Amino acid sequence: MSILSWCHWLQNTPFATGIRQSDLLFPLIEGSHIMALALSVGLILAFDLRLLRLAFAAEPVSRIMEQFVPLSLPGFAAMFITGLLLFIAQAEKVYQNTFFRFKLALLVLAGLNALLYQVKFYPKMAEWDKTGVVPRGARVSGALSLIIWACVIALGRTMAYEL
Amino acid sequence: MSLQQIWEWSYSSKAVDVLRNAKYAIPVIQSFHLFGLTLVLGTTVVFNLRLLGLGVRKISMQAITNQLWRLAVGGLLLSVATGILVFIPDPARYAANTAFKTKLVILVLAILFHFTVFRKVVRANAPPQFRRAALIAAVSLTLWFCVGWAGRAIAFLG
Questions:
Q1: CB of B41 within 8 Å of any CB in chain A?
Q2: How many CA atoms within 13 Å lie on the side-chain side of A109?
Q3: CB-based contact (8 Å) between B146 and chain A?
């Protein structure tokens, strides 16, 4: 069975059809997906900007990370769940959408970028944070995060335009 | 020149015609509209969590206001500017849309509240009592998220 035919099956399940055809449910899920931007990307921004010294330069990076990153996790969870429901409801068209495929690829990149920070810069954060100088790689990671999320938002908006 | 004449002039201008007909002009502008939304709603969430003592407690209200107020203002300017660009090519559609009109009313209320009561409380030296903070947070979050929801409803209410 190809992925496309699986998507065809998926969006024709009673669950998917129910969401897609609901006058209330579909806009509600889509709206929640967008409002969750404030609770996810809107909060992680502070950490990225701190890495670049563009905000909270007087605070240690570790404090900004500890205060903002856990706070953004429920928002990212809401984003993922509502996104999954939107995909299920329109799986066949969404799967064939080029903007969606780029968006998915960038989401993987965002994950890898966060993982890289955790593996490479987080273990020694206590040391470099004391010096007040953010390692170049960590700054690049912050900049990449901002760029990737901006592109994810733009691709998400544009893909919906094509559905 | 009346407002009506301004719309008519801009509606038929060449620049707006390009905006209207370029395939991806509107979604690209709307992407920037969403960047603005992320900044405005995101900073509003941070301010209110701090005000209520529910989050970011290890950073002072003063530091948060110093660092994030300009992001909120920048986000608002970006959203308003891009919002105007989306409105201009198709003014009749938006002017007739109930969700759009509702959004404008709530937006005006949100801006008024944000730059008066809210601005004062996030700049105050002493934090407000919890009951007052809770009331302010409820008004602030309701107003800004309703702007977002009303905006989303424009597409669905036709």
A1: yes
A2: 17
A3: no
